[in-house]
Each structure stands twice: as structure tokens, then as C-alpha cells.
Design brief:
Number of strands: 16
Helix content: 40-55%
Shape: elongated
Strand order of the largest sheet: 1-2-5-4-3-6-9-7-10
Structural class: alpha/beta
Distance between the termini: 114 Å
Radius of gyration: 35 Å
Length: 825
């Protein structure tokens, strides 16, 4: 129980004050308040309460109260005393100055504890709004009517600013000016979504509905020092409350010590910690805490923030994902070069072979995918290509479902359709959503790991940790980049928990141990499995990487990968013109727009949660560092596929912010206007996806063989299959023609092609003698001049060569060519 205050030296001619004490729950339901005593000198007389927090302010508070009494402003006044011992708050004097109540904190805490005590008391007394001014005499009380006018006008948070037009900043210390204007105000402005100029100023006002909102919950014991002021500055804008500033005067003494209760360097460091924690959502009520930092802007008055048609938009996205991939499967019956090289190693002779080096074409894939693909290939028989493409389609749909469910459970239901459209309805998403490679399942494993991390950080109980461990095992099986993802997620989770002040709880300790175990297992897995099975492919990528990726036109010969090219290759994942006008990278205008949206998508969610923005930043910074060090050579956009889920979410968040701004500028009703723009975006992306599905890049070897069959002079034509076409030709009309220069193992250990047309007379003497014409089948040709050198030995042996078939281009999968060489009839 709280102690009852003993009021001394009261004037017997005045009414006796009502003296007592109360617990937090008695004052306001669920409030966590310090023990305090109350002395009530008068009944409530006005709509608004002025709270003045003090502790040992001496003559400063007494002069301030005399001045306030003389202004006759219609405000009840309550003193929130932190335990003054200087006699400045003598009850008789307070009554003379018209003070209604003296509330004296007896429990732990500092300024924020005093404010919690006074604000809860004010709400319990029925005030419509509460104003606050420091009790050290620095503030111009003549500004109080401006706060009342703003509350009367419907504003919920009114901040006094000495830097607004009409305000005065007198003798402000340089460190206060620099810290307030360059750090404090910008950070809380970013967190709030409103431009605030003087957030270190305690001269402010709040509406009753703002302080009483359970999503604000200001009466919690976590607010002890200055954090409540910082938190309330940021939270109003986040919840859609009306925010404004009014000009005020704040004057420091021209000489002598600065009136302040801040301590030395340690106190200022702690203050900075409270500032960042407030800006980053660390003080949000647990029910409103957005771990992922995503979701629609919280609205203070919208009863139905998501229109009724919204689930249909999500259903449309899934339908478009399915339709675009089926279109791609039907439009591209031929396999691609990379697919043929991997399929040459399937089906596996045993499950153990999935954990060993593959024998042909320097190929590698995660063991989990190899086991699945091997099983499908065995079951599908002659329909192996279709079966494996449908396997990738299933992986894509699974990843989309996991991501949508994750976003819904983390408050990002509105983000889900936009993120899925960016990720799965881009040309890149369509292509790699049906490719016979591990990419769809790598995305699925990444989404599962992200979902499990969010679940474990929110509730680090046994089931949450078990789910995380299972997702980690899945990531090891289906992705070569598990160590990178584990490290990035662990860093993001640690920062989120640090901001929330939960790092030292038992459940979080177990979570930390599990992440440490996962990273240790990933390290052992990398050394024991990943490195041995990828060594040949890694050497090939490193060989090409060292030369510079010359097929990308924005990289000069020998230049290698630059920061700009790195970003443009990465952002090709979201380019709507990928392969059509942008080749295999994002066009410069698209890259610039995407970077801006990413910046918005990273900054906007910070006020609601750190985990996703931090995870995205860790990958954006970490992968370039690994690439520059030679640990992760970057050649194609697909090498960034591990980043696609988190980047899609951040891009979607940025895009939603832009849509909300456009809707507001156009006078559209919110949030329905934003949702209509999102629906239009999904339809547009769907059109792009369907176009990509019906125009898949393909090597058209079956068409080339049809031309050969129609024009060959012999029923069993002699076909020299160039090395780049050899993997595909294992599966395209395998019984047609006599093929030479053909077979697995077309690359030696130095990755130079073995077969040469100049050697056909010695390598294939019987085949050459038995035929009077020869066909050259080439694919992946980017420089036609190279073909002329290949044709010279064939022309010498059989006669002039004529081009009979050409498809593709130098910016797609290159040209597919068929030449006939024979002597004139």
C-alpha cells in the first residue's frame, strides 16, 4: 500500500485538501503506476489539465506558478512531484496559485514515472486533454492558449516548437540545438510520419482519446526516464492521429548553469538508447508490436481498414501465378541448357549420391532438391521434363502460400498481394518458377525459415524453437546459402530483441543457443557437403567472374563486377522488362526506381519493427562483401534468389506508401483508394507474367531438328552437335540422326570444351566417310563470328555451308543455328 502524505503548515483559513493514495489499477484500469500520494485542493473546473513535472525546482517553479496564476488561463493545474525536498511545493502556496492537485511520486522511476502518474490521474478525473510544461521556468506560458485551441480543433498530439515560425529559441546550448535538430527530431519524424521540429521540448498536449487508446498504453512500467515523451511523439502519427506543432518560446539562462535533470555522459548515452528504442517500435504494446516492420498503416478511426474485395485480390494473384507458369510450360517444351546439364545427372543411383559430386557438366544442386527431382524423374518416365517443371511449379505455389500466411500473421495482410505480385509475377519469377533447378524450393525454404524466425522471436517457446529447428534443416537441404541466411536472420532477431528489451529472458537465451547451433551446423554442412559438391561449379563461376561477365553490356572488358552492375543484376529479379528490353539485368531507370522504393520500404517499417528491414540490410551489405572477397561470385540475377522474399516485402511496403500518397493527393477515399491502386498493379503484373509465360526464352532445338529432317538429303543425317547443345540433345529427339561431337563430359576440369570441328576427320572417320553432307547444330551463340571458325573445317570436308535455321537473339539465350555443309549437286 502507498503511504498517505502528511501535509504540514496548511493555512487553517483555507479548505482542507483531500489527502490520499491509490494503486494504479484504482486510478486507471490496467495502469502500472508508481506509488504516489495525492493532495487535492479543489474540484475539477475545466476541460483540460496542465501537468507540471518537477523535482527540487525551488524558486523557478514558484515564479512559474505565480506567472501562470496571473495569466488566468482556463486550465486546471496538477503538480507531478518526483519527491522534492526543498520546500518549494508548500501546500498553502500551491493553493494561493490556484493549483488543483499535488501528486507526489513515492515509487521508482523518474520523469516518465511522474508523467504516467499524472496522466492516469487526469484521465480518471475526466479531462478531455492534458497539457504538459516543464517546471523549470524555461517555457513561455503565454503559448498555452495555442495548445487549447489545437485540442479544440481536433488535434490529438500538439507539440510546442521554438523552431516554428513565431517561436523563439533563446540561449539554447549548442549541444541541445545540434542533437535536437539533427538527430532527435529527424528520427522521431521518420518514426511518426509527420514533420516534427522540436521533439526534445516537453511543452506539449495530448487528447484524451490518444492517451486512452489501448494501442498506445502509456501507463506501463517500461517508461521510467524520458522514454514516454519520445514514445508519444512517434506513436500518434503511426496510429493515424492528428498531429501539429505550435510556436513557443523557450529561454535558457544567459549565464550560469543550465536548468536540467540530465546527468553526465552515461545518462546521455542511456537517453540515446531510449530515443532509438522509441523510434524503432521497442516500446509498442506487445499486441501492437510488428516484428517484421510491415503491414498497412495503423489507422486511428478506420473501422474496416481492408475492403471486402481484398481476399479476391490475393486469390487473383495465386491464379495468375498458376496460369503464367502453365503457359510457360506449354510454350517451352524444349529444356534449357542448364536444365539439360543437370538432368544428365538424374536420376541418382542412390540417395547417398545427392550428397556427392555430380559427374557431368560441373553441375551441383542442393541434396534435398536432387532427391525430389530424382524421384519425380523416375516416376514420370518419358514425361520427365513435364514432371520436373510441375515440381518447380509446386515449389513456387508453396513459397507463395507460406509468404502470404507469414505476412498475414505479422500484420502485413495488405502487403501480401503486392509482395507476391512483385516476386512471382515478374518475368524472372515466371522463368525460375518452372526451371528444372532448385530455385523454387530455395525460395520456399527461405520463406519457411523467415516464418519460423518471426514465430520464434515472438514466442520463443518449445514449439516455436522446434519449428525453427525444422525450418533450419530444410534450408540446409534446399539451399547452398544457408550460412548466409542464418547469420543475417540471427543478427536481425538479436537487434529486434535488444530494442524490445528481451535479450536476457530464458526463452530468448534458448533462441540464441538454437541460432548458434544452426550456424555451427551450417558451417559443418558447408565444409562436409556443400563445398565438395560445388567445387567444380564454383571454380567455373570464379573463372568467368575473374574475367568479368562480358555478356552484360554495361560491364566493359576486364572491368569485373562494380557496385552499379551488382545492383542492376540483383534487381533484375523485379524488372518487368527482364530479358525483353533489359536482357539479364535491370534497366537503369528501373534500377533507380527500385532502389528508391527499397529505401522507402526499409525506412517506413522501422517505426513498427526491425526484423525484416535489418534482415534485408544485412543481405544487401553482406552479399557484396562476400562477392568482392571471392566467396560468392555473382554472374546472374538468380544468384540473388535467396534475397527475393525479403526484398519483395520491402519493395511492396515502399510501393504501398507511394500508392497511399497518390490516393491522398488524388482525393481518393482511404484506404479504399490505395486498395484500388494495388488491384490495378496486380492486374498489370499479371499481364506481364502472362506475356512472359507465352514468350519464354527457349533454344528451339526441336524446331531446328525439324528443319534438318525436312531438308536433309539423307534419311539418317550426320549432325555435328556443338558442345553447348549437347546436354539438351540428350532429351530432344534422341533417336534422330547420327550425332557426333556428342556426349556427357563436354567440359574438362579446366572448363574448356573438348570437341572441335577441326578434329572430326580423326575423331569420326567412319561417320564422315559414310555421309556426303553434314549439319552443324549450335546454340547459345552470342557472337556469330565464332561460328565462321567452326564452319571452316566442315566446309573443307563436305563443301560450302549454308545457314538453314536461326532463332533467338544475342540478348536472350543467344542464337540457335543450323547449317548444312555439302558440295553442290
Amino acid at each position: 500500500m502507498n503511504q498517505v502524505s502528511r501535509m504540514k503548515d496548511a493555512d487553517p483559513g483555507r479548505p482542507e485538501p483531500e489527502i490520499g493514495s491509490a494503486t494504479g489499477a484504482e486510478i486507471w484500469p490496467g495502469a502500472e503506476l508508481p506509488a504516489f500520494d495525492s493532495a487535492i485542493f479543489a474540484p475539477r473546473a475545466t476541460r483540460y489539465l496542465l501537468v507540471i513535472p518537477v523535482i527540487n525546482e525551488g524558486e523557478r517553479i514558484r515564479n512559474q506558478l505565480r506567472q501562470l496564476h496571473g495569466l488566468r488561463i482556463p486550465l486546471d493545474v496538477a503538480i507531478a512531484d518526483g519527491g522534492s525536498t526543498d520546500g518549494s511545493l508548500e501546500p498553502g502556496f500551491l493553493q494561493e496559485c490556484g493549483v488543483r492537485a499535488l501528486l507526489t511520486r513515492r515509487g521508482p522511476g523518474r520523469l516518465s514515472a511522474q508523467l504516467r502518474m499524472a496522466y492516469a490521474w487526469g484521465l480518471a478525473e475526466g479531462y478531455d486533454g492534458i497539457l504538459t510544461v516543464d517546471g523549470n521556468g524555461k517555457d513561455g506560458l503565454e503559448a498555452l492558449p495555442r495548445f487549447i485551441e489545437a485540442l479544440e480543433a481536433g488535434f490529438d498530439y500538439v507539440q510546442g516548437s521554438r523552431y516554428r515560425k513565431g517561436g523563439e529559441a533563446i540561449n539554447t546550448p549548442l549541444d541541445r540545438r545540434i542533437g535536437g535538430r539533427l538527430l532527435h527530431a529527424p528520427l522521431l519524424s521518420l518514426a511518426s510520419g509527420n514533420r516534427l521540429t522540436d521533439t526534445t521540448n516537453g511543452f506539449r498536449a495530448y487528447s484524451r482519446r490518444y492517451l486512452a487508446d489501448p494501442r498506445v498504453a502509456p501507463f506501463r512500467a517500461c517508461f521510467r526516464d524520458y522514454s514516454l515523451l519520445f514514445y508519444l511523439s512517434a506513436r500518434a502519427g503511426q496510429l493515424g492521429y492528428r498531429v501539429t506543432e505550435v510556436p513557443v518560446r523557450r529561454a535558457y539562462p544567459a549565464s550560469g548553469p543550465t536548468p536540467t535533470k540530465m546527468g553526465g555522459a552515461g545518462a546521455k548515452i542511456a537517453l540515446m538508447g531510449e530515443l532509438f528504442r522509441s523510434a524503432l517500435g521497442g516500446y509498442h504494446p506487445p499486441a501492437a508490436r510488428g516484428l517484421a516492420g510491415i503491414g498497412a498503416p495503423e489507422a486511428g478511426s478506420d473501422p474496416e481498414p481492408v475492403p471486402r474485395f481484398w481476399p479476391w485480390i490475393l486469390a487473383l494473384v495465386f491464379l495468375l501465378i498458376l496460369a503464367s507458369r502453365l503457359a510457360g510450360i506449354l510454350d517451352a517444351p524444349d529444356i534449357w541448357h542448364d536444365e539439360g546439364m543437370l538432368m544428365a545427372n538424374l536420376p541418382l543411383p542412390s540417395v547417398l549420391a545427392a550428397f556427392q559430386h555430380l559427374p557431368y557438366f560441373a553441375q551441383a544442386a542442393p541434396p534435398g532438391y536432387l532427391i525430389l527431382a530424382s524421384g519425380v524423374m523416375t516416376l514420370a518416365g518419358e514425361h520427365a521434363i513435364t514432371g520436373l517443371r510441375l515440381l518447380s511449379l509446386a515449389g513456387s505455389l508453396g513459397a507463395a502460400a507460406v509468404l502470404a500466411l507469414t505476412l498475414r500473421r505479422t500484420g502485413g495482410a495488405v502487403v501480401a498481394p503486392v509482395a507476391l505480385a512483385l516476386m512471382f509475377l515478374s518475368p524472372f519469377g515466371v522463368r525460375y518458377g518452372i526451371e528444372i533447378k532448385q530455385y523454387a524450393f530455395e525460395i520456399l525454404a527461405t520463406c519457411l525459415m523467415l516464418a519460423a524466425t518471426l514465430r520464434a522471436v515472438r514466442r520463443p517457446d518449445r514449439s516455436g524453437l522446434a519449428i525453427l529447428a525444422g525450418a533450419g534443416l530444410g534450408l540446409l537441404l534446399f539451399s547452398f546459402t544457408a550460412p548466409v541466411l542464418f547469420a543475417a536472420l540471427a543478427a536481425a532477431a538479436a537487434l529486434q530483441l535488444l530494442v524490445e528489451g528481451r535479450l536476457r529472458t530464458d526463452g530468448v537465451r534458448r533462441l540464441g543457443l538454437l541460432f548458434a547451433a544452426l550456424m555451427a551446423a551450417a558451417g559443418a554442412w558447408h565444409l562436409g557437403v556443400t563445398k565438395p559438391v560445388t567445387v567444380a561449379q564454383f571454380r567455373y563461376f570464379s573463372f568467368v567472374y575473374d574475367l568479368g561477365y562480358l555478356r552484360l553490356p554495361f560491364i566493359d572488358d576486364g572491368e569485373g563486377i562494380t557496385v552499379s552492375s551488382f545492383a542492376r543484376i540483383m534487381l533484375g529479379m523485379f524488372d518487368p522488362f527482364y530479358r525483353f528490353a533489359s536482357e539479364y539485368h535491370a534497366a537503369r531507370p528501373v534500377a533507380v526506381i527500385t532502389v528508391l522504393l527499397l529505401a522507402i520500404g526499409i525506412l517506413m517499417p522501422l517505426r513498427r519493427g526491425l526484423l525484416l528491414p535489418t534482415f534485408g540490410l544485412a543481405l544487401l551489405i553482406g552479399l557484396p562483401v562476400l562477392s568482392h572477397a571471392g566467396f560468392y561470385p555473382v554472374l546472374y540475377s538468380r544468384h540473388f534468389i535467396l534475397m527475393q522474399p525479403v526484398l519483395a516485402i520491402l519493395l511492396a511496403t515502399g510501393l504501398l506508401s507511394v500508392f497511399a500518397w497518390i490516393a491522398g493527393a488524388a482525393g481518393m477515399a482511404r484506404p479504399a483508394g490505395t486498395m484500388r491502386l494495388v488491384a490495378a498493379f496486380v492486374v498489370l503484373q499479371g499481364g506481364i507474367a502472362m506475356h512472359a509465360g507465352f514468350h519464354q526464352e527457349k533454344q528451339q532445338l526441336s524446331e531446328a531438328l525439324a528443319v534438318i529432317a525436312a531438308n536433309a538429303a539423307e534419311p539418317d543425317p550426320l549432325i555435328y552437335v556443338a558442345p553447348a547443345a549437347q546436354p539438351n540433345m540428350l532429351y530432344v529427339a534422341p533417336d534422330f540422326g547420327t550425332r557426333i561431337g556428342y556426349g556427357p563430359g563436354a567440359f574438362d576440369h579446366d572448363f574448356h570444351k573438348r570437341s572441335k570441328t577441326s578434329d572430326i576427320a580423326t575423331d569420326y572417320p567412319r561417320e564422315v566417310a559414310a555421309h556426303r553432307e553434314i549439319w552443324l547444330l549450335e546454340t547459345l551463340i552470342y557472337d556469330l563470328d565464332n561460328v565462321a571458325a567452326e564452319l571452316e573445317p566442315l566446309a573443307a570436308a563436305f563443301g560450302p555451308c549454308t545457314e538453314m535455321y536461326r532463332s533467338g537473339s544475342s540478348r536472350d539465350l543467344g542464337y540457335t543455328l543450323a547449317y548444312r555443309c555439302r558440295a553442290p549437286d
